[in-house]
RNA sequence: GCGGGUGUGGCGGAAUGGUAGACGCCGGGGACUUAAAAUCCCCUGAGCUUUGCUCGUGCGGGUUCGAGUCCCGCCACCCGCACCA
């Protein structure tokens, strides 16, 4: 080896081709090795990959390559979440077909991913927009229907009257359609739903077993499912009606001083029918924002209906208000308000001068203690509550439920926040819902042998509305039951359905069914799933639901598809801008040159303002293009950068200086390998024990770091070992260290590692090499450094034999000149000895 | 407002209750070179009366022989949200 430079432009493609030719990363379902399924969330084919993808897929890749080296049969697939609105937007804006646009994007992005040298099994690639995928999804949808997990009901949508289309929430801006600017209407449509609520309890319980999921994600899902238990009972109203309310604090029932209903509650509507004031108030409630933050800070408002509600125990007449803080779609849309023990009720009661009785106190003798400006939601004993007095909160709640149930006036009830999943989308670019509307037979599933029901290609997006509805022939078919003329369902499925089972199809892709039970059992669950926190709730909950639902119908036997979940941080970059006509104009990093602590625009040399480091986004122009970076530094430098420095769960600030440093390190490593190749021919002898120990330590530590996904730490250790090897004189140990270093860096810098492996004269691919073995004897240190402290402050460090007895360490420490100077003759009162660590002298 | 998280040099960050700042970036100095680039070596938390000492992990307390780490109370920022009765 005489060539002293490493050229990624020629080396990267060479090794990528070598892996392809050898089908190195093809997963064998029949392998006897232990399996490992490593999966990253598959991308939406938007057109180009971004740094977030690079970071996500590099993490998974390092793990996949490492797992291969440690003797696992690894499944590491890739595919495309290929249905969705951006393709239809492109169709409308650019006049291209969504399918053509999507497939071109896939081609391009696949090329980009290949440039990064990912160890992917491309033979299992799938795109959800292909009939080979969505046809099976249609079959699954029919299966779920037959199992009673699919139904239709009326539901409200955002309707854009100009574009004649349904809008997603994110497409409604200030109540107007994002494209047309038209006032959005609420329309009721019959839509398809999946019965996720049947699995609410299971999905909640299952979270407890997902120990390798972030607590944060589990908590978010728990809150989303939102189980609460309480009491539902009815008040008798002064107008003769009954008003059912739901409460989670039945124990505080004697503290109820008013009753409140939501603005769209039937009672409110009834009052509004002949009261202009009520109508005005209801309109006002609807004007305010509906987010939690808005509502929380908004003033509590109420409208006294004049109706009263008879308290079920005290018999008191409580006023009934319409209140802006009561939600119609939770519980019964009406509450008993207990101001003493609920902060919202407290604020309301204070504002409208309603009584605030105390019914829970720390002890019985504090029954009349005043409130200190806020409600008390804590534990205690019941007071001022008749037959409940003296009881603990939990016991009182049970007693109230028992009594009301015995009297047939109410019942304990569990209420969930989780609602059924609406999967209908009135769009073209999605999986056609495999149902047929027949005038005679009603809505019937398509025959399984008629699947896939494919999308028509001859559509145009110049006319408003869903092309499937407008298409001259597509929807016309015959009824599978009676054979008569019938129409296809023109709704398509939510794209979250596509991503709810793709990980199954990766593991097993028979032609005649969605997946094979045995093969699924072989590969699932996914050992490590990696993706963004933005999918913490919906995607991950839906995927868990689908696994359960498909298990429920006997297709697979997987309750939890993802054994371990990791959510990586975002890739960020500082922003560059100038104020122009009172607005900020942003510039891309490529247009800007950093100058020490400032930055100037390349074009005019004038300064630009350096803004906050935030997530890369097109609108702020703080993006760097992976292709440009790969072209300049090579794939390995980019991979190394996204693994370095920042812990993977935190944000990664991209910087030009940082990637340059990584590029330098790649070449530095190469020089080490290349020089060694030149030197080794003499056959170097001799051992270097310190280096041997360092290698052994590093091999173990890097393995631990990779398994913990602590890539930044693994990187630091490789830096350290590199420096140590560079500084060490020629020896057999050094030769061994260099081969080891190649193996250690192989998961992270696979191209360089292959090139070096080859140059060192090793056979085959380093991708197929095992993880380096370690002699356990080398991990045992025989000398340790002891810290010598005086009153907890470091005064000296000493070397001592490992395992030295306490008195020996104490004597050694007391012999330290530096310590004695610090002691300055003071009386030693106590000596703390921590074996192999430190001696602390207390005076 | 509620829930969760984070806070350590100029920057990204290390650190089972036991030597704070590993490793990288930036910066400074030097070597090599006609010169530059590349590369290599050294320095790089602050302060001071500099063989060394003092201070220092958002702020204020506490526990401990010893606290970045544990406890209590604050502050700032980030993320999530559904007034869930």
From TrEMBL:
Its main location: cytoplasm. One of its GO terms (molecular function) is ATP binding. Its EC number is 6.1.1.4. A motif ('KMSKS' region) lies at residues 615-619. Residues 222-404 form the Leucyl-tRNA synthetase editing domain. Residues 691-806 form the Methionyl/Valyl/Leucyl/Isoleucyl-tRNA synthetase anticodon-binding domain. CDD domains: Anticodon_Ia_Leu_BEm, LeuRS_core. It comes from the Bacteria. SUPFAM superfamilies: Anticodon-binding domain of a subclass of class I aminoacyl-tRNA synthetases (SSF47323), Nucleotidylyl transferase (SSF52374), ValRS/IleRS/LeuRS editing domain (SSF50677). Keywords: Aminoacyl-tRNA synthetase, ATP-binding, Cytoplasm, Ligase, Nucleotide-binding, Protein biosynthesis. This is Leucine--tRNA ligase. It comes from Qipengyuania marisflavi. The lineage of its organism: Bacteria, Pseudomonadati, Pseudomonadota, Alphaproteobacteria, Sphingomonadales. The gene is leuS.
């Amino acid at each position: 080896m005489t060539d002293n430079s490493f050229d990624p432009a020629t080396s990267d493609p060479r090794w990528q081709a070598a892996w392809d030719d050898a089908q190195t990363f093809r997963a064998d379902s029949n392998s006897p090795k232990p399996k490992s399924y490593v999966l990253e969330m598959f991308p939406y084919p938007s057109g180009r990959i971004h740094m977030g993808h690079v970071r996500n897929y590099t993490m998974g890749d390092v793990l996949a390559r490492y797992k291969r080296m440690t003797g696992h049969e690894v499944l590491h697939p890739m595919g495309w979440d290929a249905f969705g609105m951006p393709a239809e937007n492109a169709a409308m804006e650019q006049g291209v077909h969504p399918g053509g646009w999507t497939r071109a994007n896939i081609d391009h992005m696949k090329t980009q991913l290949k440039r990064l040298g990912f160890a992917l099994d491309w033979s299992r690639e799938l795109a959800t927009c292909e009939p080979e995928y969505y046809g099976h999804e249609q079959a699954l949808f029919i299966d779920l229907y037959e199992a009673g997990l699919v139904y239709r009901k009326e539901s409200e949508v955002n309707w854009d009257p100009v574009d004649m289309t349904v809008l997603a929430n994110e497409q409604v801006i200030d109540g107007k359609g994002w494209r047309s600017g038209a006032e959005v209407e609420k329309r009721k449509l019959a839509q398809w739903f999946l019965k996720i609520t049947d699995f609410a309890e299971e999905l909640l319980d299952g979270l407890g077993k997902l120990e390798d999921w972030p607590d944060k994600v589990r908590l978010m899902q728990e809150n989303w499912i939102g189980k609460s238990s309480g009491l539902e009972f009815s008040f008798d109203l002064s107008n003769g009606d009954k008003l059912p309310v739901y409460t989670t604090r039945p124990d505080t029932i004697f503290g109820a001083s008013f009753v409140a209903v939501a603005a769209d509650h039937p009672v409110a509507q009834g009052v509004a029918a002949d009261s202009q004031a009520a109508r005005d108030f209801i309109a006002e409630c609807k004007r305010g924002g509906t987010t939690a933050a808005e509502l929380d800070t908004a003033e509590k408002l109420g409208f006294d209906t004049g109706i009263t509600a008879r308290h079920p125990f005290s018999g008191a007449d409580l006023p009934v208000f319409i209140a802006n803080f009561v939600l119609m779609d939770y519980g019964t849309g009406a509450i008993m308000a207990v101001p003493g023990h609920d902060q919202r009720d407290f604020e309301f009661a204070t504002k409208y001068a309603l009584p605030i009785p105390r019914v829970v106190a720390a002890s019985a003798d504090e029954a009349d203690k005043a409130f200190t400006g806020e409600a008390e939601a804590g534990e205690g004993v019941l007071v001022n509550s008749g037959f409940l007095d003296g009881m603990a909160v939990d016991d009182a709640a049970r007693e109230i439920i028992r009594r009301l149930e015995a009297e047939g006036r109410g019942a304990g009830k569990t209420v969930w926040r989780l609602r059924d999943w609406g999967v209908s989308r009135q769009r073209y670019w999605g999986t056609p819902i495999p149902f047929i509307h027949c005038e005679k037979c009603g809505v019937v599933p398509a025959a399984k042998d008629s699947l896939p029901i494919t999308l028509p290609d001859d559509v145009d997006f110049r006319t408003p509305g869903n092309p499937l509805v407008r298409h001259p022939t597509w929807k016309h078919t015959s009824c599978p039951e009676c054979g008569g003329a019938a129409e296809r369902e023109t709704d398509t499925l939510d794209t979250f359905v596509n991503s709810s089972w793709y990980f199954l199809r990766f593991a097993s892709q028979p032609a005649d069914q969605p997946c094979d039970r045995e093969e699924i059992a072989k590969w699932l669950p996914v050992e490590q799933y990696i993706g963004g926190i933005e999918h913490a709730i919906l995607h991950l909950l839906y995927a868990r639901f689908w696994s359960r639902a498909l298990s429920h119908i006997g297709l697979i036997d997987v309750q939890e598809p993802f054994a371990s979940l990791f959510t990586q941080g975002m890739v960020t970059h500082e922003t560059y801008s100038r104020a122009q006509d009172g607005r900020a104009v942003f510039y891309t990093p490529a247009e800007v040159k950093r100058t020490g602590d400032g930055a100037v625009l390349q074009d005019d040399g004038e300064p630009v303002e350096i803004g906050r480091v935030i997530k890369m986004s097109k609108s702020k122009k703080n993006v760097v293009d992976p292709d440009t970076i790969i072209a300049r530094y090579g794939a390995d430098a980019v991979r190394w950068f996204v693994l370095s420095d920042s812990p993977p769960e935190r944000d990664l600030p991209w910087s030009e200086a940082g990637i340059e440093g990584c590029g330098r390190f790649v070449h530095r490593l190469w020089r080490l390998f290349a020089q060694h190749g030149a030197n080794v021919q003499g056959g170097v002898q001799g051992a270097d024990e310190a280096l041997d120990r360092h290698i052994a330590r590093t091999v173990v530590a890097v393995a631990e770091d990779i398994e913990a996904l602590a890539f930044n730490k693994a990187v630091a250790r490789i830096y350290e070992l590199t420096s140590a090897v560079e500084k060490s004189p020629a020896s057999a140990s050094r030769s061994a260290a260099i081969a080891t270093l190649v193996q250690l860096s192989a998961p992270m810098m696979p191209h360089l590692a292959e090139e070096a492996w080859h140059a060192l004269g090793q056979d085959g691919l380093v991708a197929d090499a095992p993880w380096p073995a370690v002699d356990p004897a080398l991990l045992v240190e025989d000398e340790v450094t002891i810290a010598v402290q005086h009153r907890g402050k470091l005064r000296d460090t000493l070397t001592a034999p490992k395992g030295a007895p306490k008195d020996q360490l104490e004597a050694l420490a007391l012999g330290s000149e530096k310590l004695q100077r610090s002691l300055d003759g003071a009386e030693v009162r106590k000596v703390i000895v921590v074996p192999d660590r430190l001696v602390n002298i207390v005076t």
